[in-house]
Design a protein that fits this description.
homodimer; UPF0215 protein CUJ83_07110 (chains A, B); Endo_dU (chains A, B); two-stranded antiparallel sheet; alpha+beta
């Protein structure tokens, strides 16, 4: 199902990123931001490295939040978390009833991904999950500089691109993703790394 | 030593808060914010519940950060972290050479604090550490509503008040403290609690 989204300047977006791979239990951080500017809440859950529980854990984290009713869209920093624990966009949308937007700094190299999956259980199943995430759209978030790439589920591509552009205030990466990344790496490593 | 501080709109301030007391090792989070608006980095360290290592751990966290050279002031959410692990403002200033500003939502009740310290080792030493933190100043951060209270070391009281007012954008609490609090509670409890 595809819904239209009206974008208010103060739209609440949840950005989700994982933390560095320091153990088999990987911390996931969610940053709830209002209009891409104001951090309203932080969520946390854990997933299994290279496991299959990302979609369920993320759904529980989102639906269990007191902010759930205010969140208008979920942004993911890529479609895989904690190594190759892949998020099923359709299932995440069906469980949360929220539009899902995947943010990528580069076009994914599908051949490289296929190769990496060979070292894991069920490589075909995982590859299929990745491919069914849908079309990849290029979005120019800042006037000059490199574009980013997105995938969207439960929302029109143009609406997703609008939300991404409206929340990319300090860099070409939308604030909810930039902030979730800074928190997830800072808390685990003691200091945040720059690249979202 | 007292220094004058010129307050630029994009001043970098590090806000520090502790996380809920769920074990004997308490996570401390630092949020580096530019102009009270833009989260630039997250720092993390651990201290002992009711211990005596807060000042040293905080100093190491601050001086070891790649952002150290840019930070112009340190804000603490109260003077005690992880129960009654007290920060020695003078020692923190001497180790970091950065102005220290303590943020309090209410005037501290010294009699109540004295009473609580009785259950801990070295109650007199701890009480002395708290009292030598200096004068408490009332600061009106928002036009209407309750004021907050601050203590400052290594900076003129008026300059400290100016920094506190300049960074209190979304509530009566300065953003670096509000954000450090949201991160510290969200990461430990799975969801952030509202009160900074």
């Amino acid at each position: 199902m595809v819904k239209e989204t009206h974008i208010k300047p103060e739209i609440r977006v949840l950005g989700i990123d994982d933390s560095p791979l320091v153990s088999d239990k990987i911390m996931i951080v969610g940053a709830i931001m209002r209009g891409g500017e104001w951090l309203e809440g932080v969520l946390r859950t854990d997933i299994t490295r290279d496991g299959f529980d990302a979609t369920v854990r993320l759904s529980e984290m989102i639906c269990g939040s007191k902010h759930y009713g205010q969140i208008r869209a979920v942004m993911l920093n890529g479609i895989t978390f904690g190594g190759f624990n892949i998020v099923d966009l359709r299932e995440l949308y069906e469980r949360t009833r929220l539009p899902v937007i995947v943010i990528m700094r580069e076009m994914p190299d599908m051949e490289k991904i296929k190769e990496a999956l060979k070292n894991l259980s069920d490589p075909e199943g995982r590859y299929e999950m990745i491919t069914r995430a849908g079309n990849i759209i290029k979005v120019q978030t800042i006037k000059r500089g490199k574009p980013i790439f997105i995938q969207a589920y439960g929302i029109e591509a143009q609406d997703a691109a609008n939300i991404v552009q409206a929340t990319s205030i300090h860099s070409r990466i939308p604030e909810p993703i930039r902030v979730a990344h800074i928190i997830a790496t800072g808390v685990i490593l003691g200091e945040s790394k720059k690249r979202a």
